[in-house]
Amino acid sequence: MLHIARLARVGLTDEDVGRLREQLSNILENFEALKQVDTTDVPPTAQSIPLQNVTKDDEVKPSLPQEQTLANAPRKDGEYFRVKAVLE
Amino acid sequence: MTPQLTIHEAHGLLKAKKLSSVELTKACLKRIKEVEPRLKALVSVTGELALKQAEKADQRIAKSDIEPLTGIPVVLKDVLCTRGIKTTCSSKMLENFVPPYDATVVEKLNNCGAVTVGKANMDEFAMGSSTEHSAFFPTHNPWDLDRVPGGSSGGSAVAVASDEGIFALGSDTGGSIRQPAGFCSVVGMKPTYGRVSRYGLVAFASSLDQIGPLTKDVTDCALVLNAIVGFDNRDSTSVPEPTPDYTKCLDGDLKGMKLGVPQEYFVKGMQPEVEAALSAAIEKLEELGAKVDRNVSLPSTPYALPVYYIIAPSEASANLARYDGVKYGFSYKDTDSMWEAMEKTRQYGFGDEVKRRIMLGTYALSAGYYDAYYLKAQKVRTLIRREFDTAFEKYDALVTPTSPTVPFKIGEKLDDPVQMYLSDVCTLPINIAGVPGISIPAGFGNGLPIGMQIIGKPFGEEAILKVAYAYEQATEWHKMRAGI
């Protein structure tokens, strides 16, 4: 549970860990039924429409102005997003 | 004046200059003030903007420049980006988020001259079946205030059922438009995947999400569909298919139509009143001239629930990785460590259900489990799709209940995720296959709404609208109002 929480970068309290462990086991138990399904030679479906490698012309267009891009930033510094030190 | 009008009724009055958009908008805002303390369907009311839009619409109408949605008040699920208007997804994470752009569907409605009166409450990030997972407050069902309105588009369904708006938009990943439409006795459609642009829809599970209308009747559903469908080069999954006029198929004639009733949708635990309502509805469809086969089998249906609860959380865990407290949204600041800041941001910014699904999805995608869960689910997804393909070689549409039960009590399933998930057991397979589905009012059990779901082939919205319209016109359910 802690390993998964770390992969997902979600902080959990001890109480959360206990509750989630029980609930997720319950949910996973319901997934067991899938093991009975014969999927030999069945290709996976990632999405349901027959479109592949959709591209569009490389046109030069104005993007969002910097001011609007930064408008919701919790912390900014001039024209940059401000983040905590990544390397310590 | 009362806003107890459909789009087509209001349009008739606007066009004949018997009503102005400002009058209609004021009536909706008054209605909101009156019922909102009891229903809590809206996260925000956009009165000032609405009146400005209504004035503009009236100026257009004065010049006889009127489209079916011009001057008509709409409520938007708060998962649709609205430029300059808070878009919260009913989450603490986005409590103060103001999008710098409009979703394509919002742009389209604005161009039609529709009037936005509010943003609707929902389960946080559209994850849930009752609107109880909103980080702000639960929404109440107008037919019984102690019961849930369904979810995740519960606020949108309630707004339509209680005349806070003339129509609403919702989003549907596993039933989030159709199940609340069924629970509130309104019409709700999930179009074919790719039919409506998802640009500006805050992503939950990208291969399943689709935007659609919630309306007071089937004619309105067709009118809203006309306005929101179509190719959009800002959504790479938007499909360049021709877009018909969806009102053309509303002729009430079911002669020669072949309908199938898949047995697997009548699940164990289905309430007898739901089953009885469906049997009666199916008989009515026969009376109207449809040929009904009651013995259709789609044997992989029981696997739709596990397939969905692997695929949707997996996609969600990837989509929601963007909430890191850096670019926008809630940000935990009381630490010097970047990783701690990110973990605490997500711990305090997300509610329990969202964290549950992120954990589930991360697990299903993690090394050692990917093949057993995610890949297996994708393969079973293929089987489910194939069964629909085969069925649609024989039938024009399939008919099922929308949900196995009538609306349940607030709090009843909140601590039992598996029970909550079962509420969408009849709607999930439709998203997995990517086909269109509509829920329409089909009766009541002890005074609580029951919905009938009609499922069509890919881009077969016209066939299901045709069936829905014929049934609606032959019954009175859509005319019944919640006494609120």
Features:
heterodimer, A: 88 residues, two-stranded antiparallel ribbon, B: 484 residues, alpha/beta, Amidase signature (AS) enzymes, 15 helices, globular
Q: Which structural category do the helix and sheet elements of chain B fall into? A: alpha/beta
**N-end to C-end Cα span of chain A:** 27 Å
Largest sheet of chain B: 11 strands, mixed
Query: Could you tell me the number of beta strands of chain B?
Result: 11
Round the Cα radius of gyration of chain A to an integer and report it.
23 Å
The shape of chain B is: globular
Percent of residues of chain B in helical segments?
25-40%
- CATH architecture label name of the domain at 7-255 and 459-479 in chain B: Alpha-Beta Complex
Structural features, described:
The complex is a heterodimer of chains A (about 90) and B (about 475). Chain A has about 90 residues and is mostly helical. Chain A has a domain at about 1-35. Chain A is built from three helices and two strands; from the N terminus they run αααββ. The longest helix of chain A is centred in the N-terminal third of the chain and has 18 residues, at about 15-30. Chain A starts with a helix and ends in a 7-residue tail after the last strand. Chain B is built from 15 helices and eleven strands. An eleven-stranded mixed sheet of chain B has the order 1-3-2-4-6-5-10-11-9-7-8, with helices on both faces. In chain B, α5 runs parallel beside α6 (about 180-185). The longest helix of chain B is centred in the C-terminal third of the chain and has 25 residues, at about 370-395. In chain B, about 65% of the residues are buried. The model of chain B has no long low-confidence stretch (mean pLDDT about 95). Chains A and B meet through α1 and α2 of A and α9, α10, α11, α12 and α13 of B.
Quickly describe the structure.
Chain A has three helices and two strands. Chain A has helices at residues 2-8, 14-31, 66-70, and strands at residues 76-77, 80-81. In chain B, helix 5 runs parallel beside helix 6 (178-184).
